[in-house]
Amino acid sequence: MAADAAEEIRGTAHGTAPVPLSVLDLVTVGAGYTASDALRTSVRIARLAESRGFHRYWVAEHHSMPGVASSSPAVILAHLAAHTDRIRLGSGGVMLPNHAPLVIAEQFGTLEAMAPGRIDLGLGRAPGTDGATAAALRRTERLHEGADDFPQQLAELIRFLDDGFPDGHPYGRIHAVPGPVQATSPGGVQSPHRPPVWLLGSSGFSARLAGTLGLPFAFAHHFSAQNTVPALDLYRESFRPSAVLDAPHTLIGVSALAADDEREARRQVLAAALNMVRLRTGRPGLVPTPEEAEAYDFSPVERDFVTSWNANVVHGTPDEVRAGLDLLQKRTGADELMLTANAHGPDVRLRSYELIADAYGLPTPA
Fold first, then answer.
1. pLDDT value, residue 138
2. How does strand 119-124 pair with strand 56-59?
3. CA 9, CA 179: separation in Å to the nearest integer?
4. Whole-model pTM above 0.70?
5. Angle (nearest 5°) at CA 24 between 153 and 202
6. Less packed terminus of the chain by CB within 10 Å, N or C?
């Protein structure tokens, strides 16, 4: 079990990539497109990623953002499982304080039954939204308690996944189904797999917790780049071998966009940056077109934000993106790079992953 779990976590690098490459999907919705269009694009990208040797495909939980249609990762992952055969699918991540641990154990047990041996459960402690929306999700105004209770929620979730509550525990007679209890029922046969648990973070809290528990750690470099190296160092320093891993294992999320020419890449990332400007100033909306971004009158403060934001987006021609990713992997020592292509149009995102796969010589479909 431990060896299988470790192999599912580590993956294999293909072509000339220094480490396995994966995809993070925010299911972005551009101006002029619908959520249905965005979800169809997710299927197209997942199929491309599978055919080109990307290791995994994760979906992130966000709420109350018109330009991000990934409010329900488990539902989207079930859809993607029906349209793929081999690629690992998972959450990048589920925001655990928004949910009861038993519900998550049931949802991901169901996904595991749908796609045996292909499901990852990445967990975060942030709300994935603003405070008012988090309060509506959690039915409480005491939001800090959800974050503070994260280690206890995590322990409860793992026990539900493993059917591991001790005798006498209040939840000892409660079972997450589908799950291990089915193997102990008369005539029961249960899959040997259960989704590997990853901890996600953008600061040191989850890094230290992941290390202490011996779990794999994924860091959100794409929106917290200044904290990447310190958090990875803290994780490695805190790491204790476990039944899951005998050594630290890290993944970083990276904003990366390749285009056929450098100017087009710059236009696309400018549009994505304008979307972030609006989000950070309380005006979330659909991802604007490059034309709208080029015509937008950025204030000096907004221009500074765009410059800072895009400094951490690896973008340009395929060769430029490959060189940037190689440098980032070498600087951070990450064991896996998870790429997210934020752009207005579906075809631009799909083309970016295709160009990056070509740049690294990843396998081509037979």
1. 63
2. unpaired
3. 20
4. yes
5. 50
6. C
Q: How far apart are CA 280 and CA 344, in angstroms?
A: 18
CA dist 362 and 14 (Å) reads 6
SS3 135: helix
Instruction: Give dist(CA 358, CA 31) in Å, integer.
Output: 29
Tell me the average pLDDT across 160-168.
92
Average pLDDT score over residue span 346-350: 97
Distances 52 to 23, 115, 285, 365 between C-alpha atoms, Å:
12, 20, 32, 7
d(Cα 45, Cα 26) in Å, to the nearest integer?
12
In angstroms, the CA 122 to CA 144 distance is 21
The strand ranges marked E within the chain are 21-25, 56-59, 88-95, 119-124, 197-201, 217-219, 250-258, 314-316, 337-340
Return the H-helix or E-strand segment holding 207: helix 204-213
CB 59 within 8 A of CB 25: yes
Question: Cis before residue 178, ω within 30 degrees of 0?
Answer: yes
Q: Is the dihedral of CA 153, 65, 40, 358 positive or negative?
A: negative
Look up residue 30 and give its amino acid: G
User: Read out DSSP for 243-273?
Assistant: SS-SS--EEEEEEEEE-SSHHHHHHHHHHHH
Which of the pair, 190 or 126, is modelled with greater confidence? 126
**87 DSSP assignment:** S
Q: What is the DSSP string of 266-317?
A: HHHHHHHHHHHHHHHTT---SBPPHHHHHH----HHHHHHHHHHHTTSEEES
- To the nearest 10 degrees (0 to 180), the angle between helices 35-51 and 73-81 is 50
Give me the residue label for tokens 């064991």. Answer: 335
For the segment 280-305, what is each residue's pLDDT rounded down to a tens digit?
Answer: 999 999 999 999 999 999 999 999 99
Name the more confident of 173 and 137: 173
Q: What is the mean pLDDT of residues 183-193?
A: 71
Question: Cα 103 vs. chain centroid, distance in angstroms?
Answer: 19
